[in-house]
Amino acid sequence: MTIHRRALVLGGARSGKSRTAQAIAEKTAGERLFVATAQPFDDEMRERIRRHRDERRDGWRTCEAPLELAQAIREGTGPGRVVLVDCLTLWLSNVLLAGRDVEDETERLAGAVRDAGGPVVLVSNEVGQGIVPETPLGRRFRDAQGRLNQRMAETCDAVILVAAGCPLLLKPAPSLDLTLA
Length: 181
Prior knowledge:
With 181 residues, this protein is α/β, with parallel strands linked by helices. It contains 6 helices and 7 strands. The chain is 42% helix and 23% strand. The longest helix is centred in the last third of the chain and has 20 residues, at 136-155. The mean pLDDT is 90.
């Protein structure tokens, strides 16, 4: 049996990705750490955070890491403990708006996930399947999110895409060896 210690759960808005990731984490280890990247800047975000908190059962500890995500993963992982990060999309937005180097921060994150001392489950939005954003910042964000998702997929043992609440395993994937006639 193959053991997957690092999983990336992707999906669109309201796809069920957070619920899927939480279910994976709850089956993984007894001690659970939820790493939150959202910042409650407005009433809508405060309500989303409250709703996500209410959906988690007892047994979860929460750590807020809107920018220092790699550090939170390094400090939070360990034997018998799973770390659930929700979500990379908000973290990336925080990184961009803070003026940090996205590529450097992505590599720091990839290293922390790769070297984690226990299981890690990451949640991220798949944003590249919609319309082209109107603004330069929107296009920069969309492109950076796509690169971040690719880098995390490369780093993780398992990648799951969630659509309409249905998980689809993307990695490990069947062989791509095709015979074209």
